[in-house]
From TrEMBL:
<dbReference type="Pfam" id="PF07228">
    <property type="entry name" value="SpoIIE"/>
</dbReference>
<dbReference type="InterPro" id="IPR036457">
    <property type="entry name" value="PPM-type-like_dom_sf"/>
</dbReference>
<protein>
    <submittedName>
        <fullName>Serine/threonine-protein phosphatase</fullName>
    </submittedName>
</protein>
<feature type="region of interest" description="Disordered">
    <location>
        <begin position="55"/>
        <end position="77"/>
    </location>
</feature>
<dbReference type="GO" id="GO:0016791">
    <property type="term" value="F:phosphatase activity"/>
</dbReference>
<keyword id="KW-0378">Hydrolase</keyword>
<dbReference type="InterPro" id="IPR052016">
    <property type="entry name" value="Bact_Sigma-Reg"/>
</dbReference>
<feature type="domain" description="PPM-type phosphatase">
    <location>
        <begin position="168"/>
        <end position="381"/>
    </location>
</feature>
<dbReference type="InterPro" id="IPR001932">
    <property type="entry name" value="PPM-type_phosphatase-like_dom"/>
</dbReference>
């Protein structure tokens, strides 16, 4: 039997919490692996943490400045060849562009020719991890450097993947403070013809902000799954929020619907998140008609604006906890420092841009702890390739 087929069968038949053990058994018997270590990226995307948490002999690895971190960042195998004649291979564990972690193996040198097959096995593992997380908390616990606040727990459960990619686009997003967020959120959905992206910011703090955002996100999803346009999605979610809060709380939201075949984009701007466009190395704020946040008044009507993306465009969605943050001298991040951070990240893939912009924000703020949630979403638009 083909080794890859055998490995896939072993993973699918394993109990959800036993994937690491099943994988280790396959790699030791089929590929002569001498050591097998699985690490998952933490919520802050700063460190790769071992699974199961802190097993004997396996240490965490920083995303910046380690061999596993290089594999995670580049999304390519990273191979070390120590003097003992063995090969140390670090393989990205990724599902449809969503970077989960890294599989590290110690192998006899003769098995180096199996690297492509092992890389495919690491991707297969990623798919099984996504399925297994429905039935076990093992992998959610393993990704935590510290305990999440209850508000953050609610928000992370609402989120889709933090990155995804298709022929037409690549997406990446990050929230800070990762372990104590409360109001900011993002969502996206792709079909054969359209990509929809949502960036939201619920007013208030703590658990109240997270509950408001939870109601708003689910109201938008409910409307979206009815197959209606984004302006009607906004109107229905607005009604749901007003019915519950009677105007005492509101949700700022930016809704974007992109037609994949043409790059035509329809946008509803209902609040504080900003949309920036990087085109031909020039960053500009997209001029949108500001409309009322969701839930302020009963039966508000919303209107979508139309724009067109060009291949090579990069869109940045930033919350007010990014563009409005002031430096000690008073200058807001959105005035000049944000443009510098985006320019410095121009060669990075979309999945890495949000973290780079947020690192720049920390330096601008002059202190590590933020006063508000900070959210960055990056969308790289490649466009539809002509049929060959």
């Amino acid at each position: 039997m083909n080794r890859l087929v055998s490995a896939g069968r072993a993973l699918r038949s394993a109990a959800p919490h036993q994937l690491p053990d099943a994988l280790s058994q396959v790699l030791r018997t089929q590929y002569a692996a001498e050591a097998v270590e699985l690490r998952l990226a933490d919520y802050g995307l700063t460190v790769l943490l071992p699974v199961p948490p802190a097993p004997s002999g396996t240490k965490s690895a920083p995303v910046q400045g380690s061999a596993p971190g290089r594999a995670f960042g580049s999304q390519q195998p990273c191979v070390e060849e120590p003097a003992d004649g063995r090969v140390r291979a670090h393989l990205p564990v990724t599902v449809r562009g969503d970077r989960l972690g890294v599989l590290s193996l110690t192998l006899p040198a003769r098995t180096r020719e199996s690297l492509a097959e092992l890389t495919e096995l690491a991707e297969l593992l990623g798919h099984e991890l996504v399925v297994a997380e429905r039935d076990t908390d093992l992998y959610a616990r393993a990704r935590r450097r510290e305990r999440l606040t209850l508000a953050a727990e609610i928000q992370w459960q609402l989120l889709p993947a933090r990155s995804c990619a298709r022929e037409e686009y690549a997406l990446g997003a990050q929230l800070e403070p990762a372990y104590a967020i409360f109001g900011d959120n993002f969502d996206w959905e792709a079909s054969a013809d359209h990509l929809l992206v949502y960036v939201t910011n619920g007013m208030g703090e703590g658990i109240e902000a997270s509950l408001l955002t939870s109601l708003g996100i689910n109201a938008l999803r409910n409307a979206r799954r009815a197959g209606i346009p984004i302006e009607d999605q906004a109107a229905l979610a607005d009604q749901a929020l007003y019915a519950h809060y009677r105007g005492e709380a509101h949700l700022s939201v930016l809704l974007v619907d992109i037609e994949l075949s043409t790059g035509r984009m329809r946008v509803v701007d209902a609040g504080s998140p900003q949309l920036l466009l990087l085109r031909d190395r020039v960053l500009s704020l997209v001029d949108l008609d500001a409309q009322l946040p969701l839930g302020m008044f009963e039966e508000t009507d919303y209107v979508a604006q139309e724009l067109t993306l060009l291949p090579g465009d990069r869109l940045l969605f930033v919350s007010d906890g990014v563009h409005g943050v002031a430096a000690p001298g008073g200058e807001s991040y959105g005035e000049h420092a944000l443009a510098r951070a985006v320019g410095n990240a121009s060669l990075l893939p979309a999945a890495d841009v949000p973290a780079a912009v947020l690192r720049g924000l920390t330096g601008h703020r002059g202190r590590p702890e933020p006063d508000d949630d900070a959210l960055v979403v990056c969308l790289d638009w490649f466009g539809k390739r002509p049929a060959s």
